[in-house]
Amino acid sequence: MTNLPDDTTLTEAGLAPDHKGRILLIACGALAHEVLAVVKANGWTHMDLQCLPAKLHLYPDKITDEVARVVAESRAAYQSMFVLYADCGTGGQLQEKCKKLGVEMLEGPHCYSFFEGNAQFATHLDTEFTAFYLTDFLVRQFDAFVWKPMGLDRHPQLRDMYFGNYTKLVYQAQTDDPTLDAKAEDCARRLGLEYERRFTGYGDLATALEQVARA
Amino acid sequence: MADDDEIILSELSDDELVLQMHDDLYDGLREEIEEGVNLLISRGWAPYDALTKALVAGMTIVGADFRDGILFVPEVLLAANAMKGGMAILKPLLIATGAPRMGKMVIGTVKGDIHDIGKNLVGMMMEGAGFEVRDLGINNSVEKYLAALEEEKPDILGMSALLTTTMPYMKVVIDTMKEKGMRDDYIVLVGGAPLNEEFSKAIGADAYCRDAAVAVETAKAYVARKHNRPNV
Q: Is residue A10, in this structure, part of any structural domain at all?
Protein backbone atom coordinates (compact mmCIF):
# COMPACT_ATOMS: atom_id res chain seq x y z
CA MET A 1 0.00 0.00 0.00
CA THR A 2 1.01 3.53 -0.70
CA ASN A 3 2.57 5.93 1.78
CA LEU A 4 0.12 8.22 3.46
CA PRO A 5 -0.38 11.82 2.45
CA ASP A 6 -0.53 14.43 5.23
CA ASP A 7 -3.60 14.84 7.42
CA THR A 8 -4.79 17.93 5.56
CA THR A 9 -4.91 15.92 2.33
CA LEU A 10 -6.71 13.09 4.09
CA THR A 11 -9.21 15.64 5.37
CA GLU A 12 -9.76 17.45 2.10
CA ALA A 13 -9.16 14.89 -0.64
CA GLY A 14 -8.83 11.46 0.94
CA LEU A 15 -6.57 8.77 -0.49
CA ALA A 16 -6.65 7.10 -3.91
CA PRO A 17 -6.21 3.32 -4.06
CA ASP A 18 -3.05 1.64 -5.34
CA HIS A 19 -5.09 -0.75 -7.47
CA LYS A 20 -3.15 -3.66 -5.94
CA GLY A 21 -4.70 -6.43 -3.89
CA ARG A 22 -8.02 -8.21 -4.21
CA ILE A 23 -9.87 -6.62 -1.28
CA LEU A 24 -10.72 -2.94 -1.35
CA LEU A 25 -11.12 -1.20 1.98
CA ILE A 26 -13.25 1.92 1.60
CA ALA A 27 -12.50 4.07 4.62
CA CYS A 28 -12.97 7.47 6.15
CA GLY A 29 -9.81 9.55 5.73
CA ALA A 30 -9.72 9.94 9.51
CA LEU A 31 -8.96 6.20 9.77
CA ALA A 32 -6.17 6.00 7.18
CA HIS A 33 -3.27 5.93 9.66
CA GLU A 34 -4.91 3.33 11.86
CA VAL A 35 -6.02 1.06 8.98
CA LEU A 36 -2.58 1.12 7.41
CA ALA A 37 -0.91 0.47 10.76
CA VAL A 38 -3.01 -2.68 11.26
CA VAL A 39 -2.58 -3.82 7.65
CA LYS A 40 1.20 -3.30 7.68
CA ALA A 41 1.65 -4.93 11.08
CA ASN A 42 -0.08 -8.04 9.74
CA GLY A 43 1.58 -7.99 6.33
CA TRP A 44 -1.74 -8.13 4.50
CA THR A 45 -0.65 -7.41 0.95
CA HIS A 46 -3.95 -8.52 -0.53
CA MET A 47 -5.71 -5.37 0.71
CA ASP A 48 -5.99 -2.01 -0.99
CA LEU A 49 -7.14 1.16 0.74
CA GLN A 50 -9.20 4.01 -0.63
CA CYS A 51 -10.17 6.85 1.69
CA LEU A 52 -12.93 9.37 1.26
CA PRO A 53 -12.16 12.87 2.52
CA ALA A 54 -12.42 12.94 6.31
CA LYS A 55 -14.27 16.25 6.06
CA LEU A 56 -17.36 14.36 4.89
CA HIS A 57 -18.05 14.04 8.61
CA LEU A 58 -19.00 17.68 8.58
CA TYR A 59 -21.83 16.74 6.19
CA PRO A 60 -22.85 13.20 7.24
CA ASP A 61 -25.76 13.20 4.78
CA LYS A 62 -23.20 12.98 1.97
CA ILE A 63 -21.38 9.91 3.31
CA THR A 64 -23.84 7.29 2.05
CA ASP A 65 -23.87 8.52 -1.55
CA GLU A 66 -20.09 8.85 -1.65
CA VAL A 67 -19.55 5.32 -0.34
CA ALA A 68 -22.10 3.99 -2.85
CA ARG A 69 -20.31 5.83 -5.65
CA VAL A 70 -16.95 4.24 -4.78
CA VAL A 71 -18.51 0.79 -4.46
CA ALA A 72 -20.11 1.14 -7.89
CA GLU A 73 -16.91 2.44 -9.49
CA SER A 74 -14.64 -0.21 -7.97
CA ARG A 75 -16.74 -3.34 -7.92
CA ALA A 76 -15.30 -4.78 -11.12
CA ALA A 77 -11.69 -4.28 -10.06
CA TYR A 78 -11.80 -6.17 -6.74
CA GLN A 79 -12.90 -9.54 -5.49
CA SER A 80 -14.54 -7.99 -2.45
CA MET A 81 -14.94 -4.70 -0.64
CA PHE A 82 -15.37 -3.66 2.97
CA VAL A 83 -16.62 -0.29 4.18
CA LEU A 84 -14.67 1.15 7.10
CA TYR A 85 -17.31 3.54 8.33
CA ALA A 86 -19.60 3.09 11.31
CA ASP A 87 -23.05 4.69 11.13
CA CYS A 88 -21.30 8.06 11.49
CA GLY A 89 -24.44 10.17 11.76
CA THR A 90 -26.13 8.75 8.68
CA GLY A 91 -29.09 7.59 10.75
CA GLY A 92 -28.90 4.00 9.50
CA GLN A 93 -28.84 5.01 5.84
CA LEU A 94 -25.28 3.86 5.25
CA GLN A 95 -26.04 0.45 6.71
CA GLU A 96 -29.14 0.14 4.57
CA LYS A 97 -27.25 1.14 1.43
CA CYS A 98 -24.38 -1.27 2.14
CA LYS A 99 -26.89 -4.06 2.65
CA LYS A 100 -28.47 -3.29 -0.71
CA LEU A 101 -25.06 -3.16 -2.37
CA GLY A 102 -24.02 -6.41 -0.75
CA VAL A 103 -20.98 -5.03 1.07
CA GLU A 104 -20.14 -5.32 4.74
CA MET A 105 -19.34 -2.37 6.98
CA LEU A 106 -18.06 -1.70 10.48
CA GLU A 107 -20.45 -2.14 13.37
CA GLY A 108 -21.23 0.65 15.79
CA PRO A 109 -22.46 4.21 15.84
CA HIS A 110 -19.11 5.99 15.31
CA CYS A 111 -15.35 5.63 15.60
CA TYR A 112 -15.35 6.63 19.28
CA SER A 113 -17.39 3.51 19.90
CA PHE A 114 -15.46 1.02 17.78
CA PHE A 115 -12.04 2.29 18.88
CA GLU A 116 -13.01 1.72 22.48
CA GLY A 117 -14.84 -1.47 21.51
CA ASN A 118 -18.58 -1.27 20.80
CA ALA A 119 -19.49 -3.49 23.74
CA GLN A 120 -17.37 -1.49 26.18
CA PHE A 121 -18.57 1.87 24.82
CA ALA A 122 -22.18 0.79 25.23
CA THR A 123 -21.64 0.17 28.93
CA HIS A 124 -21.14 3.86 29.63
CA LEU A 125 -23.58 5.38 27.13
CA ASP A 126 -25.91 6.30 29.98
CA THR A 127 -23.26 7.79 32.20
CA GLU A 128 -20.81 9.44 29.86
CA PHE A 129 -23.00 11.32 27.44
CA THR A 130 -21.52 14.63 28.53
CA ALA A 131 -18.10 13.63 27.18
CA PHE A 132 -16.65 15.07 23.98
CA TYR A 133 -14.35 12.55 22.30
CA LEU A 134 -11.25 13.01 20.20
CA THR A 135 -9.16 10.36 18.47
CA ASP A 136 -5.50 10.65 17.39
CA PHE A 137 -6.58 12.02 14.01
CA LEU A 138 -8.99 14.50 15.53
CA VAL A 139 -6.42 15.76 18.00
CA ARG A 140 -4.05 16.41 15.12
CA GLN A 141 -6.82 17.99 13.07
CA PHE A 142 -8.62 19.75 15.94
CA ASP A 143 -8.52 23.17 14.33
CA ALA A 144 -9.63 21.93 10.92
CA PHE A 145 -12.39 19.70 12.30
CA VAL A 146 -13.65 21.47 15.40
CA TRP A 147 -12.36 24.94 16.01
CA LYS A 148 -12.72 26.46 12.53
CA PRO A 149 -15.90 24.76 11.24
CA MET A 150 -17.64 25.79 14.44
CA GLY A 151 -16.50 29.36 13.87
CA LEU A 152 -14.65 29.49 17.19
CA ASP A 153 -11.62 31.09 15.53
CA ARG A 154 -13.81 34.02 14.51
CA HIS A 155 -16.44 33.97 17.25
CA PRO A 156 -14.98 32.56 20.47
CA GLN A 157 -18.08 33.72 22.33
CA LEU A 158 -19.96 30.79 20.75
CA ARG A 159 -17.92 28.24 22.66
CA ASP A 160 -20.36 27.77 25.50
CA MET A 161 -23.33 27.57 23.14
CA TYR A 162 -21.66 24.53 21.60
CA PHE A 163 -19.93 23.01 24.60
CA GLY A 164 -21.80 24.36 27.62
CA ASN A 165 -23.50 21.02 28.26
CA TYR A 166 -20.30 18.98 28.00
CA THR A 167 -18.24 18.27 31.11
CA LYS A 168 -15.07 16.58 29.87
CA LEU A 169 -12.96 15.85 26.83
CA VAL A 170 -11.93 12.21 26.51
CA TYR A 171 -8.90 11.66 24.31
CA GLN A 172 -9.17 8.12 22.99
CA ALA A 173 -5.54 7.40 22.20
CA GLN A 174 -4.83 4.90 19.46
CA THR A 175 -1.09 5.28 20.02
CA ASP A 176 1.20 6.31 22.86
CA ASP A 177 2.33 9.76 21.82
CA PRO A 178 3.14 12.34 24.51
CA THR A 179 2.91 15.15 21.95
CA LEU A 180 -0.66 14.22 21.07
CA ASP A 181 -1.48 13.83 24.76
CA ALA A 182 -0.29 17.37 25.41
CA LYS A 183 -2.18 18.69 22.39
CA ALA A 184 -5.37 16.92 23.45
CA GLU A 185 -5.08 18.42 26.91
CA ASP A 186 -4.72 21.83 25.32
CA CYS A 187 -7.85 21.16 23.23
CA ALA A 188 -9.72 20.45 26.48
CA ARG A 189 -8.45 23.71 27.94
CA ARG A 190 -9.57 25.64 24.88
CA LEU A 191 -13.05 24.11 25.11
CA GLY A 192 -13.25 24.74 28.85
CA LEU A 193 -13.58 21.02 29.63
CA GLU A 194 -11.94 18.59 32.03
CA TYR A 195 -9.42 16.28 30.43
CA GLU A 196 -9.10 12.51 30.39
CA ARG A 197 -6.78 10.36 28.32
CA ARG A 198 -7.99 6.85 27.60
CA PHE A 199 -5.81 4.43 25.66
CA THR A 200 -7.93 2.37 23.26
CA GLY A 201 -5.53 1.08 20.63
CA TYR A 202 -7.40 0.10 17.46
CA GLY A 203 -10.25 -1.69 19.23
CA ASP A 204 -12.92 -3.26 17.04
CA LEU A 205 -11.30 -1.80 13.94
CA ALA A 206 -8.45 -4.31 14.28
CA THR A 207 -10.87 -7.17 14.94
CA ALA A 208 -12.97 -6.29 11.90
CA LEU A 209 -9.90 -6.05 9.67
CA GLU A 210 -8.72 -9.47 10.83
CA GLN A 211 -12.06 -10.92 9.77
CA VAL A 212 -11.88 -9.19 6.40
CA ALA A 213 -8.32 -10.44 5.86
CA ARG A 214 -9.37 -14.03 6.54
CA ALA A 215 -12.42 -13.91 4.28
CA MET B 1 -16.35 59.87 17.64
CA ALA B 2 -18.59 58.03 15.22
CA ASP B 3 -17.36 57.04 11.77
CA ASP B 4 -18.79 59.15 8.95
CA ASP B 5 -20.65 56.19 7.50
CA GLU B 6 -21.83 54.75 10.82
CA ILE B 7 -25.56 54.13 10.76
CA ILE B 8 -27.46 55.88 13.52
CA LEU B 9 -30.52 53.69 14.06
CA SER B 10 -32.54 56.44 15.69
CA GLU B 11 -32.20 58.59 12.56
CA LEU B 12 -33.75 55.97 10.29
CA SER B 13 -37.39 55.94 9.26
CA ASP B 14 -39.44 52.97 10.42
CA ASP B 15 -39.10 51.15 7.11
CA GLU B 16 -35.37 51.80 6.95
CA LEU B 17 -34.96 50.71 10.56
CA VAL B 18 -36.73 47.40 9.96
CA LEU B 19 -34.56 46.68 6.93
CA GLN B 20 -31.47 47.64 8.90
CA MET B 21 -32.57 45.27 11.68
CA HIS B 22 -32.80 42.47 9.13
CA ASP B 23 -29.19 43.24 8.18
CA ASP B 24 -28.12 43.43 11.83
CA LEU B 25 -29.78 40.11 12.60
CA TYR B 26 -28.02 38.58 9.62
CA ASP B 27 -24.74 39.90 11.02
CA GLY B 28 -25.56 38.72 14.54
CA LEU B 29 -25.38 42.17 16.12
CA ARG B 30 -27.24 41.71 19.39
CA GLU B 31 -26.81 45.21 20.82
CA GLU B 32 -28.05 46.79 17.59
CA ILE B 33 -31.07 44.50 17.58
CA GLU B 34 -31.88 45.40 21.17
CA GLU B 35 -31.56 49.09 20.30
CA GLY B 36 -33.75 48.62 17.23
CA VAL B 37 -36.47 46.85 19.18
CA ASN B 38 -36.47 49.56 21.83
CA LEU B 39 -36.71 52.22 19.12
CA LEU B 40 -39.70 50.53 17.44
CA ILE B 41 -41.49 50.22 20.78
CA SER B 42 -40.73 53.86 21.63
CA ARG B 43 -42.24 54.84 18.28
CA GLY B 44 -45.49 53.20 19.22
CA TRP B 45 -45.10 49.90 17.41
CA ALA B 46 -47.15 47.02 18.75
CA PRO B 47 -44.75 44.42 20.23
CA TYR B 48 -46.26 41.77 17.96
CA ASP B 49 -45.45 43.86 14.87
CA ALA B 50 -41.89 44.46 16.05
CA LEU B 51 -41.52 40.73 16.60
CA THR B 52 -42.93 39.58 13.29
CA LYS B 53 -41.81 42.35 10.91
CA ALA B 54 -38.34 42.98 12.31
CA LEU B 55 -37.17 39.84 14.11
CA VAL B 56 -39.05 36.91 12.59
CA ALA B 57 -38.80 38.30 9.06
CA GLY B 58 -35.06 38.81 9.59
CA MET B 59 -34.55 35.31 10.95
CA THR B 60 -36.53 33.91 8.02
CA ILE B 61 -33.88 35.34 5.69
CA VAL B 62 -31.17 33.80 7.89
CA GLY B 63 -32.97 30.45 7.82
CA ALA B 64 -33.36 30.50 4.04
CA ASP B 65 -29.69 31.30 3.51
CA PHE B 66 -28.71 28.54 5.93
CA ARG B 67 -30.83 26.07 3.98
CA ASP B 68 -29.26 27.24 0.72
CA GLY B 69 -25.73 26.81 2.07
CA ILE B 70 -24.96 30.53 2.09
CA LEU B 71 -24.82 30.80 5.87
CA PHE B 72 -23.41 28.20 8.25
CA VAL B 73 -24.07 27.18 11.82
CA PRO B 74 -21.82 29.79 13.51
CA GLU B 75 -23.54 32.65 11.67
CA VAL B 76 -26.98 31.24 12.46
CA LEU B 77 -26.03 30.99 16.13
CA LEU B 78 -24.90 34.61 16.18
CA ALA B 79 -28.16 35.67 14.53
CA ALA B 80 -30.13 33.59 17.01
CA ASN B 81 -28.25 35.20 19.86
CA ALA B 82 -29.14 38.64 18.49
CA MET B 83 -32.79 37.64 18.13
CA LYS B 84 -32.73 36.33 21.69
CA GLY B 85 -31.73 39.81 22.83
CA GLY B 86 -34.69 41.33 21.03
CA MET B 87 -37.05 38.64 22.26
CA ALA B 88 -36.04 39.28 25.87
CA ILE B 89 -37.32 42.84 25.51
CA LEU B 90 -40.48 41.86 23.64
CA LYS B 91 -41.60 38.83 25.64
CA PRO B 92 -43.06 40.65 28.66
CA LEU B 93 -44.64 43.21 26.33
CA LEU B 94 -46.22 40.49 24.21
CA ILE B 95 -47.74 38.91 27.30
CA ALA B 96 -49.00 42.29 28.53
CA THR B 97 -50.56 43.19 25.19
CA GLY B 98 -52.14 39.78 24.60
CA ALA B 99 -50.51 39.03 21.27
CA PRO B 100 -52.17 36.33 19.15
CA ARG B 101 -51.42 32.77 20.26
CA MET B 102 -50.97 30.03 17.72
CA GLY B 103 -50.79 27.19 20.23
CA LYS B 104 -48.56 25.61 22.79
CA MET B 105 -45.51 23.38 22.49
CA VAL B 106 -43.48 21.30 24.90
CA ILE B 107 -40.01 20.70 23.54
CA GLY B 108 -36.89 18.91 24.75
CA THR B 109 -33.81 16.91 23.78
CA VAL B 110 -34.17 13.18 24.47
CA LYS B 111 -32.57 11.13 27.21
CA GLY B 112 -28.81 10.65 26.92
CA ASP B 113 -28.42 13.61 24.59
CA ILE B 114 -27.07 17.01 25.59
CA HIS B 115 -27.25 18.73 22.22
CA ASP B 116 -29.60 21.67 22.27
CA ILE B 117 -28.59 24.12 19.57
CA GLY B 118 -31.24 23.00 17.08
CA LYS B 119 -33.83 22.57 19.78
CA ASN B 120 -33.16 26.09 21.09
CA LEU B 121 -33.49 27.55 17.59
CA VAL B 122 -36.79 25.77 17.08
CA GLY B 123 -38.07 26.98 20.45
CA MET B 124 -37.15 30.55 19.68
CA MET B 125 -38.65 30.52 16.18
CA MET B 126 -41.81 28.91 17.52
CA GLU B 127 -42.11 31.69 20.08
CA GLY B 128 -41.53 34.17 17.32
CA ALA B 129 -44.37 32.59 15.38
CA GLY B 130 -46.72 33.05 18.32
CA PHE B 131 -46.47 29.67 20.04
CA GLU B 132 -46.11 29.37 23.78
CA VAL B 133 -43.09 27.15 24.39
CA ARG B 134 -42.18 25.12 27.46
CA ASP B 135 -38.56 24.10 27.00
CA LEU B 136 -37.62 21.00 29.00
CA GLY B 137 -33.93 21.35 28.18
CA ILE B 138 -31.68 18.34 27.56
CA ASN B 139 -31.55 14.66 28.60
CA ASN B 140 -35.30 14.13 29.04
CA SER B 141 -36.72 10.82 30.18
CA VAL B 142 -40.11 9.61 29.02
CA GLU B 143 -41.43 10.36 32.49
CA LYS B 144 -40.34 13.96 32.20
CA TYR B 145 -41.95 14.38 28.80
CA LEU B 146 -45.22 12.85 29.98
CA ALA B 147 -45.30 14.93 33.16
CA ALA B 148 -44.85 18.08 31.07
CA LEU B 149 -47.64 17.01 28.70
CA GLU B 150 -49.97 16.45 31.65
CA GLU B 151 -49.03 19.74 33.19
CA GLU B 152 -49.01 21.97 30.13
CA LYS B 153 -51.64 20.33 27.91
CA PRO B 154 -49.83 21.56 24.79
CA ASP B 155 -50.88 21.10 21.18
CA ILE B 156 -47.44 19.89 20.20
CA LEU B 157 -44.68 17.72 21.60
CA GLY B 158 -41.29 18.41 20.01
CA MET B 159 -38.38 16.02 20.46
CA SER B 160 -34.81 16.56 19.34
CA ALA B 161 -31.74 14.30 19.10
CA LEU B 162 -28.35 14.72 17.50
CA LEU B 163 -27.01 11.22 17.96
CA THR B 164 -27.77 7.98 16.18
CA THR B 165 -27.56 6.34 19.59
CA THR B 166 -30.17 8.59 21.20
CA MET B 167 -32.71 9.11 18.43
CA PRO B 168 -34.42 5.71 19.02
CA TYR B 169 -35.52 7.05 22.41
CA MET B 170 -38.13 9.11 20.57
CA LYS B 171 -39.91 5.85 19.82
CA VAL B 172 -39.85 4.95 23.51
CA VAL B 173 -41.68 8.19 24.26
CA ILE B 174 -44.22 7.75 21.46
CA ASP B 175 -44.85 4.09 22.33
CA THR B 176 -45.45 5.05 25.96
CA MET B 177 -47.90 7.72 24.83
CA LYS B 178 -49.71 5.05 22.80
CA GLU B 179 -49.80 2.65 25.75
CA LYS B 180 -51.37 5.36 27.87
CA GLY B 181 -53.90 6.18 25.15
CA MET B 182 -52.69 9.74 24.83
CA ARG B 183 -50.74 9.66 21.56
CA ASP B 184 -53.53 11.14 19.48
CA ASP B 185 -54.01 14.03 21.88
CA TYR B 186 -50.81 15.63 20.65
CA ILE B 187 -49.01 16.58 17.47
CA VAL B 188 -45.56 14.99 17.69
CA LEU B 189 -42.79 16.71 15.75
CA VAL B 190 -39.23 15.39 15.69
CA GLY B 191 -35.94 16.78 14.46
CA GLY B 192 -32.16 16.49 14.63
CA ALA B 193 -29.25 15.95 12.26
CA PRO B 194 -29.36 12.14 11.84
CA LEU B 195 -33.15 11.96 11.52
CA ASN B 196 -35.13 11.80 8.32
CA GLU B 197 -38.69 11.51 7.10
CA GLU B 198 -38.54 7.74 7.02
CA PHE B 199 -37.41 7.50 10.64
CA SER B 200 -40.13 9.88 11.71
CA LYS B 201 -42.78 7.69 10.08
CA ALA B 202 -41.26 4.50 11.46
CA ILE B 203 -41.43 5.70 15.06
CA GLY B 204 -44.96 7.07 14.70
CA ALA B 205 -44.28 10.81 14.84
CA ASP B 206 -46.50 13.17 12.89
CA ALA B 207 -43.68 14.88 11.06
CA TYR B 208 -39.94 15.30 10.74
CA CYS B 209 -38.75 18.91 10.67
CA ARG B 210 -35.36 19.39 9.07
CA ASP B 211 -34.85 22.90 10.42
CA ALA B 212 -36.45 25.57 12.58
CA ALA B 213 -38.31 27.23 9.71
CA VAL B 214 -39.82 23.91 8.63
CA ALA B 215 -40.76 23.21 12.25
CA VAL B 216 -42.71 26.46 12.43
CA GLU B 217 -44.53 25.89 9.14
CA THR B 218 -45.30 22.27 10.03
CA ALA B 219 -46.54 23.26 13.48
CA LYS B 220 -48.82 25.93 12.03
CA ALA B 221 -50.26 23.52 9.46
CA TYR B 222 -50.91 20.75 12.00
CA VAL B 223 -52.41 23.09 14.57
CA ALA B 224 -54.73 24.57 11.95
CA ARG B 225 -55.77 21.06 10.93
CA LYS B 226 -56.29 20.06 14.56
CA HIS B 227 -58.50 23.05 15.23
CA ASN B 228 -60.51 22.39 12.09
CA ARG B 229 -61.07 18.76 13.04
CA PRO B 230 -64.80 18.04 13.28
CA ASN B 231 -66.09 17.01 16.70
CA VAL B 232 -66.71 13.30 16.80
A: no
Q: How far is CA A47 from CA A5, A21, A215, in A?
A: 18, 5, 11
Same domain, A208 and A107: yes
Q: What is the pTM of this model?
A: 0.87
Contact A158 B77 (CB under 8 A): yes
- pLDDT greater than 70 at residue B231: no
Residue B4, pLDDT > 90, answer no
**Number of domain units in chain A:** 2
Q: B197 to chain A nearest CA, in Å?
A: 11
Residue A6 lies in a domain: no
Residue A37 has pLDDT above 60, yes or no: yes
- For residue A125, give the 3-state DSSP assignment: coil
* Minimal-distance CA residue of chain A relative to B200: A91
> Which pLDDT value is given to residue B134?
97
Same domain, A76 and A141: no
Contact between A32 and A49 (Cβ < 8 Å):
yes
Domain that holds residue A171: 118-199
Distance from CA of B69 to the nearest CA of A (A): 12
Q: What is the pLDDT of residues B97-110, one digit of tens each?
A: 888 889 999 999 99
Chain A contact for B195 (CB, 8 A cutoff): yes
